[in-house]
Structure formats: C-alpha cells, structure tokens
Specification:
A 3-stranded antiparallel sheet has the order 1-3-2. It has one domain: Orthogonal Bundle (Arc Repressor Mutant, subunit A). The protein is built from 5 helices and 3 strands. The protein is elongated and about 70 Å long. It has 113 residues and is α+β, with helices and mostly antiparallel strands.
Length: 113
Amino acid sequence: MISIDGRVEVLKIIAHPVRVKILQELVKGVKCVSDFEEFLSISQPNVSQHLSLLRRYGIIDYFVDGRLRCYFLKDPLIPDLIGVINREYEKELPAPACCPVTKKGTYPGNRHR
C-alpha cells in the first residue's frame, strides 16, 4: 500500500502539463516515443526526459519491440488521478454560513445560493 507521502510525491512528479498529457495518453494504452512527439509538438529528447522521470519514479515502464520503446502505465493511482483532472465541475462548493465552532462570523465573499 502506498503511503500518503508516496502519493504526494506522485502528485509532485506528474505536476507538469507535458507529463499530464503523456499520462492521459497512456491511460488509453501503450504508446511509443514517436506517438508522443506527434501530439505534444516537442522534441524527441524533451519527450524522453519526461518519460525518463516518470519511469524513475515507477509511474510508467517500457518494453522494447525491435527499435521501439513502448511505454505503459505501472502505477495504479494514475488512471484515477487523470480521471479527476479530466472531470468537468459545474460550480464551486458552497461557502459556510458561519464558523462551525463558534457559530459566529460570516463569510466575507458573495454567497452562491
């Protein structure tokens, strides 16, 4: 079982737009470096740096097929995280009416009711 500290570390590692896009694609299935180059519009060395970091932390891994490196997800937390990142939310959570401890005070912003 992964500790909360381990999960926070995973969040830190994936917290980059390019790495999130890579992981979004890997949730769909196995991909090779050339697949990433096509949709990311960044250089192969840059793609490889991101893949290397994700692999170093055990988030992804690869197998070799001829001259191709085929990458896949390894960390079971990633599909859930990507699902949350991709989810559309309609509105903010409601503000509290007052302090739950003292039952005094009011929210200084505009309430959404």
